[in-house]
Amino acid sequence: MGRPDECAGLIKQGKTPSDIAREIGVTYSTVIDYLFRAVGHSRIGLVDIVISWPQARRKRIEKIIAERATDYWFTIYQEMRNIGDDITREDIQLYLQLRNVYIGDLYFMICELELHLHSFIKTILQKEFNQTAEDWWKLGVPENVRKKCLDTMDRSRSATEKGHPYSYATFIQLAKIIEEHWDRFVKYLPIELIKGEMSLPSYLYQTNRIRNKVMHPLNSGLVQEDEDFRIVRELHTKLIRTEWTRRF
Question: Between helices 171-180 and 200-215, what is the axis angle to 10°?
Fold first, then answer.
């Protein structure tokens, strides 16, 4: 793709759109066109553009928005200049257009992970405990996890709703299931989730923490920690965007 790929690579290196325009010698609008083309061809996501601006800078912008009760770009531009931040007006305007993408992308990946993991774990338990239809639930899911799922289901649904208590398992409870039968799950997991820097249960404990932050933005703020995004995207890539998942 030429220039769109080049711009995508620079964004991933942490260069802002303004940095890229100066580096390759084109206008800001041309860089945005290249970047959006790269997004359209799945070279990058919109969130990659957002996190090209340092987290500290994004937090300063969000603080100004909260304190001044406005998201008018020129007011934010003046305030940033007053505190010695040399962000360009174009970058501020683009950030204001894309600022909600961060939470949206995190939410989407967490939802996909939750759906995928429930299906994957149930499939493995059915393979490993298959004498009767419900053995995967009675023998594969630890008793304390079954009880918590049942309690959550009783509190959450109306009498007319149907469903299996397993669908109420949290990321932490899914991690407990895997830990209980680790010797069985390692036969199916990709090697990087067994012997990598973080095992699958470790990822799930972290993802549960991040999920709680995303679902309660009034407590955590719009700008999440970049490390949180890295963890979720890494797990999403290893579990969903790989050839390995096609076995299931």
Answer: 170
